[in-house]
Amino acid sequence: MKISASRSRHWLVFAIPTIALIGITAGCGGGSGSSTSSGLPLTKATLAQVTAGQAIVTGFGCTDCHNRGVDNTADTHWMAGYIGAAGGTGSGTYNIGPFQTYAANLTPDTTTGIGRYTDQQIYNALKFGLDPAATPDAVITSTTPGQGNFPATPHYLAPPMPWPAIRHMTDTQLWEIVAYLKHGIKAVNNPVPDSGAPPDFWASSYTTTAVGPVTIAPYPSGNEIYQP
Ligand code: HEC
Question: What is the pLDDT of residues 211-227, one digit of tens each?
């Protein structure tokens, strides 16, 4: 399906008058709003979001896979994903059972990178693990398949993309990542092969038993104890 940018613009037009409501409803749904009224997702990415996103992307280890293990923004393929035999230190390709998977090009290139998708689709990839190429551009308000725009048959991102951990960042942090990748780095044209996938698009690999609950319980719970 061709996904047009106009849908997200419609959402923006709808969202701006409801900015006050978003603060009230945050936490009830899947999480798509922001605690601030400037910057993504309601207005254009701010420089503050972009620089905060840089700290997360370089600090979290996104580069282990998406930049061949090299944390250096001077790299000419910065965040361009798997680049094959010429890839240097890290491969960016993985054997997952019988499937070969490839670290995606996260630069804003509009033919080979995440420039093909809207900001909302990249947020949905980070928050819900949904493959942006197979998931409509929509604000998701439920984690139950078939409800609240969550796809009835979700196509999850292939392992080892660690979205089950990334989703626990705050909404503010997730939008900072989107701001940095989509609005803060240069586009690099680098076609990355499609990852292989099982018929359920990894759904059985991403059960709560396998990767933990959708939402981490408030502190302290489980095996946590506060001992200053
Ligand atoms: C251990 C390796 C690994 C790490 C670390 C990693 N990723 Fe990924 N990522 C992948 C792989 C592999 C894919 C491709 C998944 C697929 O093809 O279905 C991917 C896909 C993505 C996509 C979807 C892009 C698209 O075009 O489909 C986004 C967005 C993304 N990663 C962002 C991040 C961010 C942001 C971080 C750090 C916070 C990160 N990744 C860390 C391996 C990794």
Answer: 999 999 999 999 999 99
